[in-house]
Fold this protein.
Amino acid sequence: MRTDERQRRFIQLGRARFSGRPTSVGRVRGWARRLLAGEVADDVLDDTVVLLSELVTNSVLHSDSGREPDGFFTVFVAAGDGVAHCAVIDEGSATNVPVVREMSDDGNVRGGGRGLWLVSAMADAWGFHHDDESGNAVWFQIGGCSRPAFADGSREEPALPGSEAIPESPMMAGASPALAGRDAEP
């Protein structure tokens, strides 16, 4: 029996603050892998680690978390019913907000990175919240939907989000980089 999305309960497995340096990408991967092992299927775990790597890299490269010497970002990891729910909250940027780049005619992503394009292609659900004062929160869920596959085994290409509102994570409602509470040590 499939769990109704509205009834799914996520259990927060961890929350940790990381420095806004490139070396944090590997630390987040290892930390998340340890937390999610046994909570989600192996293929979901592998995909989750890839998507977290992309979001953390975006935070380090495109936000004040990576630009400021004492910059940081926070990662949340939760799971429920075999589904991973993750969020990365960074210090934002005066010049950048999260955006999915469009695919060009030659099959490359226009304007640079593939991070959010991969998230939109692989995640069952995702979204972001931008606030000029508190930064960016980008979240995704993966593992809850089986996607139709073509005869060659590939997944259906998702529609790229346009100007429509992207929902806020239920786990992250109202969260900001200045979250109250304890931060776990990764």
